[in-house]
User: Fold this.
Amino acid sequence: MMNAKAAVTYATLVVASLSLGYLAGVKNRKVTIPTTSSVAPAAKATQPENSVVEPDGFSDEGGNESDDSDASSDADGDIAALRVEDDDNCKMVLVVRTDLGMTSGKIAAQCSHAALACYKTLQAKNPAVRIILSTADSLDIIFHPQMLRRWERDGQTKVALKCDNEEEMLVMQAQAQSLNLCARSIQDAGRTQIAAGSRTVLGITGPARLVNQITGKLRLL
Assistant:
């Protein structure tokens, strides 16, 4: 029989997986053609500066954990400039505050909000790019996939971690944004268990080599 800690972690990762696991990844491709030099970025979707996460209902020990939460971007870095290298693995981490005393259902709902907020942000702000390099006889077209697609191709890795308080969470969010990573913290509407405006979960998505610089010392939820 799973203990409470294992149940929370399992519920968190299952919810995030179900929320995001429906799209297929794309592969890098390289084509050589005789043409003129240019750089042609792929079209970028339109998205509001702050993504608002819609309410979702999750049951925890028979209680309804439906809530409204907003995803806060604060001062984003240049997410569009962040490129993944050929050997990069991308992952998403969901950092949960433990000082709020949230139930497993509440944690699952808030992690789902954070996962979706990161997904929408990357979809809008980190487009795929085709870079055309000139050589003596031809041009090389190198396709750099959108980071979101690389994450999907890598198996949509999601890791639930924990931090002690809001101050620690805000420091990590600022560090992530300074590295141009996608970082979204969730502010609860205060309709169920905790005070309105409380930051509950921080989602960070990007190359593992960069994400680990920020969250590498945190413990699993």
